[in-house]
Design brief:
By secondary structure, this protein is an alpha+beta fold. It is built from 35 helices and 28 strands.
Length: about 950
């Protein structure tokens, strides 16, 4: 190559060094220099004739293992897709040149994608809300991790104060600046822009996408040969266009990839989980687990559920091939290739039909309970009623439309808001101004009111500003506040001083940083400071949807926003399908909001989970009692894991995180409550085996057990009583008095005083509870809370109260142990694991956790009691199969009781064991009726469409209570 240059030089001088010749020399040197830069930046390369060939290692993606149900139906699989990747292979004279070049490539790729209905992919934690303002889409630790990645910090602890506290608006400005990615720079010349193929100005949407893409590319820049995915699952049209023109965009490629597809959302979402881009922490943890470097930043991994639990089984091993490309990216030669290895396949024990049916039944019954217990009240004093008689005022549903994001407060102010939304938003703006005027008035008053004398609304607004907004903007330094200070105690505990007094003191103690609102604070008096602070907060709070929700909520309470208008907004925002008849009826008042809402709940047009009231959730676990195989493990509500895998829907994820019904929280394995009367078989076993009661002995229930203080009323007491009961009838009637007595007697075993000792009785109950599996998790392959055997108060503990706390899965294992004759098996979701060719890798075998020390006669007595319970319960006695079961009601102060049921069928040859919990389900009969329908479904005892009806199921009233 240098010889060719030398010849050019000689020829030029032989031509007496004309000006044209000199220009050719300069041009030649520039070309050669550029070619050498390409060679150096890409490492291994070689020269052949006039073509520079660049050695490049291309990843051949492996496929993640599939997940199947018990019948071999696909639950999670991979779908071939095409992704656009970018690798910065250039060298630049300046950051300005780099920004123009890369932004030009990316912008032109974006236009190609747009033309074909595609878009770029970003996992950027900043978005524009409906009001057109930048906001973070992550919070807490996840937000700090995002900022650490942006600023190149390995650990969140390394972030500076400024980096930690930077707002979304300021971060966009910073990243768009000349120092970073040059997206928001306004001094580019027309010539520079034209050369790079860039417009004179970007739209806000394109600017944010470019910043997000540049940030992702930058995070991979320290790893050689690592490309960044900038678009996923593109169409064939986009692929063809990019392949035709990719030579113009150095570093851009179209690669094969795979999308993870889930077939049974939301029924299986909490079991399967979802996949996503690997984090730095996951890279470290997984590579450490494997003892070698296998994972890097390009990998997709399981984020929750079985996808996470079996990550190293499901994950394949990528292949690779070495290719040589020219400087335009065209492949000139292919060299060595290593084939990818697919991940292992997992076959579950789950029956998808049972799983889906159980989910629908939970939704139907929860909707039915909500329907029955909602009244046309604005408020109701539930402190005067029992926990199974609690009233749900319909206004709680109206408030929930804002608090649980059924209605979007930001959409009210968006450009495409309806006329009704605009009217509502105008009223909101007026009310918000009045609120801040009132706050300012309090701060400027000569005789301000103590906090305790402010209205409830004003207390809520002020508390929000002090607890959330002011620390968030740096006005109030929470870490500096001395909570033991006398003045602080007067504010926070006694509520005896005013907001003005508290903030004045906070400034004097340097708990506040008023430089946030003014740089001339030392020359301002308190009135000027408070006036500026209020104006500053009022402006800031306009971007805070959480505060807006509070304002809207109290507008409803104060009749400034009417219920009928709220219901019309459900149509305006697309929550409900258009129905002009209902819309007009709501508008002219011929239909009232109460009737309308109840109708939508009954028809399941609004799911009960959307209100996040009590009840709004539940769980059901169905097992094979003879092996521990889990046939269904359902938590309600679930979520659509397809919207979280692949290209995550950040808005959807954020809505799930803030949803009051907690869809990410697995109610079947993580939610612990008292088992209520479902626990009584443990006490029965302990009583029989320790000899404190016999099967034939009758204990006389008087309605109130008075041997302990305070006395414990039987559920039929204190005015009623069961009279003399043997163990079978005590289980049948679920008599608290009987089991209080057995627990009390257990406490007398070995007592030196002859009196019952709680510690002795508790140790006896713990011994048998452990045998039934309540001492440890079930072994199910999901996140599971540790069970808690009660450790105090033997009499209430013996009837399933005290500190007993178990998950639904743990109750299922327990009742399965009773069903099979006393063998406690660990639960499992997995039948087998095979490699991609079908060869067995793991064959799951039943695992025995423990064996209950109980003789057959005693066990038969307990089983008979459970069978009689089913035959005599109004809620379940019409079941068309002989089965055994036990209801339970777990009380919790201030909320409706939890409804539980455990059982198995058929009675004489158990095939399935079942545990149901409706959180805040009022009455155990509701859980029993749900279990009845589930057993009917499993054994085909009734037509499927008569079980899964698509409308709210009729629950029961307290009159049918059996425990």
């Amino acid at each position: 190559m240098f010889k060719k240059i030398k010849n050019v030089v000689v020829d030029a001088f032989n031509a007496r060094v004309t000006i044209l010749g000199i220009l050719m020399i300069i041009f030649g040197f520039i070309i050669v220099r550029r070619l050498f830069e390409l060679q150096i930046i890409n490492g291994d390369s070689y020269q052949s004739d006039f073509t520079m060939q660049i050695r490049k290692t291309v990843t051949i993606p492996s496929t993640r293992g599939n997940i199947y149900d018990s019948k071999g139906n696909l639950l999670a699989y991979n779908q071939l897709s095409y992704n656009v990747t970018f690798q910065d292979v250039g060298t630049y004279e300046s950051n300005r040149e780099k920004n123009l070049t890369i932004n030009g490539y990316l912008y032109k790729i974006m236009q190609i994608l747009y033309e074909n209905g595609d878009d770029v992919y970003t996992d950027f934690a900043i978005a524009k809300n409906d009001a057109g303002e930048y906001e973070y889409t992550k919070s807490g630790v996840n937000l700090l991790r995002f900022k650490a990645d942006i600023f190149g910090q390995a650990y969140t602890e390394d972030l500076t104060k400024e980096e930690r506290e930077i707002t979304a608006e300021d971060l966009v400005k910073t990243l768009g600046s000349e120092k970073y990615y040059g997206v928001l720079v306004d001094d580019y010349t027309e010539k520079e822009l034209a050369a790079a193929g860039l417009p004179s100005a970007f739209s806000d949407e394109d600017a944010l996408k470019l910043i997000a893409l540049r940030s992702a590319i930058n995070q991979n820049s320290y790893q050689k040969y690592i490309s960044t995915t900038i678009a996923k699952s593109i169409s064939n049209q986009s692929m063809s266009s990019l392949m035709e023109s990719k030579g113009y965009y150095i570093g851009v490629d179209v690669e094969e990839g795979y999308d993870r597809i889930y077939t049974n959302s939301p029924y299986m979402s909490n079991i399967l989980g979802y996949t996503g881009q690997i984090s730095n922490e996951e890279i470290s943890a997984l590579n450490e687990q494997l003892g070698q470097t296998v994972y890097d930043s390009s990998d997709i991994v399981g984020k929750s559920g079985l996808e996470q639990h079996f990550e190293t089984q499901l994950q394949g091993i990528d292949g690779s091939k070495v290719v040589y490309v020219n400087n335009l990216g065209k492949v000139l030669k292919e060299d060595s290739q290593v084939e990818p290895q697919a991940g292992n396949d997992i076959y579950l024990t789950i029956n998808t039909e049972y799983q889906e049916a159980a989910y629908h039944l939970l939704e139907q019954y929860i909707a039915g309970i909500l329907y029955q217990h909602t009244y046309d009240y604005k408020e109701f004093d539930n402190t005067q009623v029992s926990t199974d008689e609690i009233i749900i005022p319909v206004y709680d549903m109206y408030y929930a439309m804002f608090s649980n994001n059924i209605l979007s407060v930001t959409h009210m102010e968006s450009a495409d808001a309806t006329n009704l939304e605009k009217e509502v938003y105008a009223s909101f703006q007026k009310r918000e101004k009045e609120i801040f005027a009132e706050i300012k008035s309090e701060l400027l008053a000569d005789d301000p009111k103590p906090y305790s004398e402010l209205s409830e609304q004003m207390q809520v607004y002020i508390s929000y500003l002090l607890d959330t907004t002011m620390p968030e903007v740096g006005l109030l330094k929470s870490d500096s506040i001395d909570t033991t200070d006398a003045m602080y105690q007067q504010w926070a505990v006694d509520e005896s001083i005013s907001l003005k007094e508290y903030l004045t003191y906070a400034i004097s103690q340097e708990w506040m940083d008023i430089t946030q609102i003014t740089s001339d604070s030392e020359f301002l008096n308190s009135s000027e400071i408070f006036s500026s602070m209020t104006d500053y907060l009022e402006e800031y709070i306009q971007r805070d949807s959480s505060f807006s929700k509070l304002v809207y909520r109290y507008m409803v309470e104060d009749d400034l926003l009417m219920p009928n208008t709220l219901c019309m907004l459900l149509f305006d925002q697309g929550i409900l399908e258009a129905d002009s008849g209902s819309y007009n009826a709501l508008a002219d008042g011929s239909m009232d909001a109460y009737s309308f809402i109840l109708q939508k709940i009954y028809n399941l047009e609004i799911a009960p989970s959307q209100f996040a009231l009590a009840p709004c959730s539940g769980s059901l676990v169905l097992t094979d009692p003879n092996t521990g195989k889990t046939l269904a493990c359902v938590t309600y509500p679930g979520y659509d894991n397809n919207r979280l895998a692949n290209d995550m829907d950040d808005d959807y994820f954020a809505s799930l995180v803030t949803d009051g019904s907690s869809p990410f929280y697995n109610k079947a394995t993580q939610e612990l409550t008292a088992p209520g009367s479902t626990y009584k078989m443990v006490t029965a076993t302990a009583g029989l085996m320790e000899g404190v009661v016999t099967a034939g002995e009758a204990i006389d229930c008087t309605g109130t057990f008075s041997e302990v203080k305070p006395p414990i009323n039987c559920w039929i007491g204190p005015t009623g009583s069961h009279g003399p009961l043997t163990l079978v009838s005590a289980i049948q009637e679920s008599c608290n008095f009987y089991f209080n007595t057995v627990g009390f007697r257990l406490g007398m075993i070995g007592s030196s005083t002859g009196e019952s000792v709680d510690e002795i009785g508790i140790s006896m109950l713990e011994k048998y509870a452990s045998m039934y599996g309540f001492d440890q998790e079930t072994g199910i392959e999901m996140d599971e809370s540790t069970p808690h055997i009660s450790d105090n108060a033997v009499a209430p503990s013996a009837m399933g109260q005290g500190r007993n706390a178990y998950a639904t899965a743990q109750l299922a294992r327990y009742v399965g142990t009773i069903a099979n004759g006393g063998t406690c098996y660990d639960l499992t979701l997995v039948d087998k694991i095979t490699d991609a060719d079908g060869r067995s890798v793991v064959e799951k075998q039943p695992v025995v956790h423990d064996t209950v020390e109980v003789d057959q006669e005693s066990l038969n007595t307990i089983q008979t009691g459970m069978n009689q319970m089913v035959k005599n319960s109004a809620a379940i006695r019409d079941i068309e199969i002989d089965m055994a079961g036990k209801t339970g009601t777990a009380e919790e102060t201030g909320v409706p009781s939890h409804a539980l049921f455990v059982g198995y069928a058929p009675y004489d040859s158990p095939q399935v064991a079942i545990a149901v919990r409706i959180t805040n389900g009022y009455n155990s009969a509701n859980a029993a009726m749900l279990a009845k329908d589930m057993i009917r479904y499993v054994f085909n005892l009734k037509e499927k469409d008569q079980i899964i009806t698509g409308v709210a199921s009729s629950g029961t009233t307290t009159a049918a209570r059996t425990d």
